[in-house]
Design a protein that fits this description.
Chain lengths: 335, 376
C-alpha cells in the first residue's frame, strides 16, 4: 500500500516545493501509512468499515477539527501554541446562535463571528509579541476570556433555527457512486488547500517557517517577524471562528460547554501529523491526516461494541506519546 | 481593615539591605534585585486585600467568623477550606515551574487519585472503617508517585519539552481514571475519608491544614536545605548546573513526582468533598487555576526562581475571586472572564517590556541601576 502511495505523495510535493529534501516528508508519510493501515485493519475486522462513505463521514464528523488543526499548525510552526481555540469555538457557536436569535441576517452573523474570533487571536498575538508574554499564558488568558464571554452571553444552550444555517447543514453534495458529502467538508478541505498554498508559496508562509526555525536569525535576516508572529495567532483565531461556525452547523446550537478540551485534540492532531513542536518543520497536510487518524480511532471504537468510549482518550494519548518520542529521537540524531 | 492585613508585607521590604550577603538571609531567595523581590509579593497581597475590600463593601458581614458546632464558621473559613485543592496543586506546580517546566497533567492525576481511592474504599470489606480510607489514600498516592515518575522520565531522561510530555498524560489520564471507575460516578460512604474535606481540627478545616502542612514542609525542605537553590539552578540553566555538579536529572524527576503527589492529595480532597468521584469532571481545569495561582504569586514561568508564599497568596486570591463574583451579584460563570483579566494584568506587570513602557513617565535610572548594584 505504502509503496504505491509514497512516490505519488513525493512527486506531488516535489512540484510544490522542489527544493526541500525528501527526508522532511517522512513524518507525513509515516502518518499517512498509519492512517491507511488503521483504516485497512478496520476494513478487515469490521463489516462496512472499508466503505468509502465511512471515510466521507470521517471528514464530515471532523470538519471543524480539521479547520482548527490548520490554524494550530500555523501557530506551532511559528514556535508558539494556542490553547484558546476550544473556547473560541464555543464562543463562535454562541455568537452565531445569539445573533441569529436576535434576527440578524445569517451572513452578518457569520461576519461577526469571524471578526470577533480573528480579533481575539490578534490581541493574543500582540500580547505575545509586543509584551513578550509566553504564548502558553497569553492563550490561557484567551481560553478563560472566550469561555467567560460565552457564559456571559448565555448559560443555557441556544438552538439555531435559521433557514440558511439549517439548509447549509443538511444540504448534501452528491458524489459519483451514490456517495454524498456536505458543504462543511468542502469548506474544511478548501481551508487546508489555501493554508498549504500560503505556507508553501507565499512570503508570509516561508517567514512562518523561518521564525519557527530560529526567531533571532529571521529577525537578523530582515524578515517581518512581528507581522508573522501576530499573524499566526490571527489566523488561528480566524480558523477557530470558522471551526466554530462549522461546529454550529454540526450541532445547530450555541452552548457554553461546547468543545471543552478541543484544543488538546487539535494539538494532538498537529503533532501526530508530524509537525515539530519546537516549530519550523511540518505540513498542513500532515495535520489533516492527523485529524483523520484521531477520527479513525473514534470510528474504530464505535464499530467495536465491546470497547468503551474512554479508550479513545487512552489511544490518542498513546499515539501522541509514540510520535513525540520518535520526534525527539529523530531530532536528537540530526543535531 | 486594610491595616490588619498589611502587616503581611513587611517581610519583603527588609530584604534589600541583606541582598548583598546571601548567607545572612534566612528565606534565602537569590540575591537578585530588591525590585524583583518586592513586587511579586506586594502586588498579589494588594490584589487580595482589594478583593476583600470589594467583598466587605458588598456584604459588610463578609469577614465575620463565629463558632458553630465546635468549629470556626464563616466566609473566610470557607475560602480557606475551598482553597486547599488549588493550593496543593499550585504548590507542586511552583517547584515544577521553577525548573523551567510545566505540568499540565495534574488535573488528570487528581482524577486518577480520586478514582483509585474511591474504588478501593467501595471494594474493601469494611467500607466505613478509618483504616480502609487510610489504605485507599495511600494506594492512590503511591499511584501518583508512579505517574510523577512517568512524567519525570519523559522530561528528564527522554528530554521532551515539559508541555508536551505532560500533555500525553493530560490526554490519556482521564481515560485511565474512567477505566478505574468503569465510567461510573462512584459514591463512597466513609466518615474518615469525608473528614479529609469537611472535617475540622482545632476549629480549622482539615483540608486547609493539610495544604498548609505541605507548604510548611516544602518551605523547610527548599529554603532550609540546598534543595531550593539547586531547583533554581536547574531552572536558570540545566546544562550549566549539570556541569557544576548538580544532578539536574534527579532534581527534575523529584519535582515532577512531588507535583504529582500534591495533585493526588488535591484529588483526594475534591473526591472527599463530594464523597464521590466523577472521572470526567474531577479536577477539570485545576491545572490552569494552579498555573494562574503560581503566576499571580510572582513565580516567573521562565523558571529560575520561585516564591512559595506568593503561591499561597495566589491560590487564596483565586478562591476569593470565585467567592467574590456571586457575592457582588454577577453570575458565577463570569468567573472565567475575571480570571482572564487577572492573567493579562499580572503578566503585563511582570513583563519587562510593559514595565519599560510604563516607566517612560518616571525617572528610569533608579530602577535600572538596582540590579547592577546587587550583582557588584
Amino acid at each position: 500500500m505504502s509503496t504505491l502511495t509514497a512516490p505519488v505523495t513525493t512527486s506531488l510535493w516535489d512540484r510544490v516545493r522542489g527544493f526541500s529534501p525528501p527526508a522532511r516528508f517522512l513524518p507525513v508519510i509515516v502518518t499517512f501509512a498509519l492512517f491507511v493501515g488503521m483504516f485497512g485493519a478496520g476494513g478487515v475486522r469490521y463489516d462496512g468499515f472499508a466503505d468509502p462513505q465511512v471515510f466521507l463521514s470521517l471528514l464530515l464528523d471532523n470538519s471543524f477539527l480539521i479547520v482548527l488543526a490548520v490554524g494550530m499548525t500555523f501557530v506551532i510552526l511559528a514556535g508558539g501554541i494556542d490553547l484558546s481555540v476550544g473556547s473560541v469555538v464555543a464562543l463562535s457557536t454562541m455568537i452565531a446562535a445569539k445573533t441569529l436569535q436576535m434576527g440578524w441576517s445569517p451572513y452578518l452573523s457569520i461576519v461577526a463571528v469571524l471578526a470577533v474570533a480573528t480579533l481575539l487571536g490578534t490581541l493574543m498575538g500582540l500580547l505575545i509579541h509586543y509584551f513578550e508574554i509566553q504564548p502558553f499564558v497569553a492563550t490561557l488568558a484567551g481560553l478563560f476570556l472566550a469561555r467567560g464571554l460565552t457564559y456571559l452571553i448565555s448559560v443555557e444552550s441556544i438552538p439555531i433555527t435559521d433557514a440558511t444555517f439549517s439548509e447549509l447543514a443538511f444540504k448534501t453534495i452528491e458524489l459519483p457512486g451514490g456517495y454524498y458529502t456536505t458543504w462543511a467538508v468542502v469548506i474544511a478541505i478548501a481551508t487546508v488547500v489555501v493554508a498549504a498554498y500560503v505556507l508553501a508559496r507565499t512570503r508570509f508562509g516561508r517567514t512562518v517557517y523561518a521564525v519557527g526555525g530560529n526567531e533571532a536569525s529571521a529577525l537578523l535576516m530582515g524578515l517581518r517577524v512581528a507581522w508573522v508572529k501576530v499573524g499566526v495567532y490571527a489566523i488561528s483565531g480566524f480558523c477557530a471562528g470558522l471551526g466554530g461556525l462549522l461546529f454550529a452547523l454540526y450541532t445547530l446550537s450555541g452552548y457554553s460547554l461546547h468543545a471543552v478540551g478541543m484544543e488538546l485534540d487539535a494539538i494532538a492532531a498537529v503533532v501526530i501529523g508530524g509537525t515539530l513542536l519546537t516549530g519550523g518543520r511540518g505540513y498542513v497536510v500532515g495535520s489533516l491526516i492527523g485529524v483523520l487518524v484521531l477520527g479513525t480511532i473514534q470510528t474504530f471504537i464505535s464499530f467495536d461494541g465491546g470497547l468503551s468510549s474512554w479508550w479513545t482518550r487512552i489511544a490518542i494519548g498513546v499515539l501522541l506519546l509514540v510520535f513525540v518520542v520518535v520526534q525527539r529521537l529523530m531530532t536528537r540524531r540530526q543535531t | 481593615m486594610t491595616d490588619t492585613l498589611h502587616p503581611r508585607n513587611p517581610p519583603t521590604p527588609p530584604s534589600p539591605p541583606a541582598a548583598g550577603r546571601p548567607d545572612a538571609v534566612p528565606p534565602s531567595r537569590p540575591g537578585v534585585a530588591s525590585r524583583v523581590l518586592a513586587n511579586p509579593l506586594l502586588w498579589p497581597v494588594l490584589a487580595l486585600v482589594a478583593l476583600l475590600v470589594v467583598n466587605v463593601s458588598a456584604t459588610p458581614s463578609f469577614l465575620d467568623v463565629r463558632i458553630q458546632d465546635g468549629h470556626l464558621y464563616g466566609n473566610v473559613v470557607d475560602i480557606a477550606r475551598n482553597s486547599a485543592p488549588v493550593l496543593l496543586v499550585a504548590l507542586g506546580m511552583t517547584l515544577v515551574i521553577a525548573t523551567r517546566g510545566i505540568d499540565l497533567s495534574v488535573g488528570a492525576i487528581a482524577a486518577i487519585a480520586g478514582a483509585v481511592a474511591c474504588t478501593r474504599i467501595v471494594g474493601a470489606g469494611d467500607e466505613g472503617a478509618a483504616t480502609t480510607a487510610i489504605m485507599a489514600c495511600t494506594i492512590a498516592l503511591a499511584m501518583c508517585v508512579l505517574l510523577g515518575l512517568w512524567n519525570g522520565f519523559l522530561v528528564s531522561v527522554i528530554g521532551i519539552q515539559p508541555i508536551i510530555a505532560t500533555l500525553v498524560l493530560m490526554v490519556a489520564g482521564r481515560g485511565l481514571a474512567m477505566l478505574v471507575t468503569d465510567g461510573q460516578i462512584t459514591t463512597v460512604h466513609n466518615d474518615a475519608f469525608s473528614d479529609l474535606a469537611s472535617g475540622y481540627v482545632l476549629g480549622l478545616p482539615l483540608a486547609f491544614l493539610v495544604a498548609l502542612a505541605m507548604v510548611a514542609v516544602t518551605a523547610v525542605l527548599t529554603r532550609r536545605t540546598a534543595l531550593g537553590m539547586l531547583i533554581e539552578a536547574v531552572g536558570i540553566n540545566p546544562e550549566a548546573s549539570r556541569l557544576a555538579g548538580v544532578r539536574s536529572r534527579t532534581i527534575i524527576w523529584t519535582v515532577y513526582v512531588f507535583g504529582a503527589v500534591c495533585a493526588g492529595l488535591a484529588g483526594l480532597i475534591i473526591a472527599a468533598n463530594t464523597n464521590s468521584v466523577n472521572a470526567n469532571s474531577l479536577g477539570l481545569w485545576i491545572e490552569l487555576d494552579a498555573i494562574l495561582a503560581v503566576v499571580i504569586g510572582g513565580t516567573a514561568l521562565t523558571g529560575g526562581r520561585f516564591s512559595l508564599l506568593g503561591t499561597v497568596v495566589g491560590a487564596l486570591f483565586i478562591t476569593t475571586l470565585a467567592r467574590t463574583i456571586p457575592n457582588i451579584g454577577i453570575p458565577s460563570e463570569a468567573n472565567y472572564l475575571f480570571k482572564a483579566v487577572v492573567v493579562v494584568a499580572v503578566c503585563l506587570i511582570q513583563s519587562p517590556r510593559a514595565r519599560s513602557v510604563l516607566r517612560v513617565r518616571r525617572p528610569a535610572p533608579a530602577a535600572l541601576t538596582a540590579p547592577k548594584g546587587s550583582h557588584a
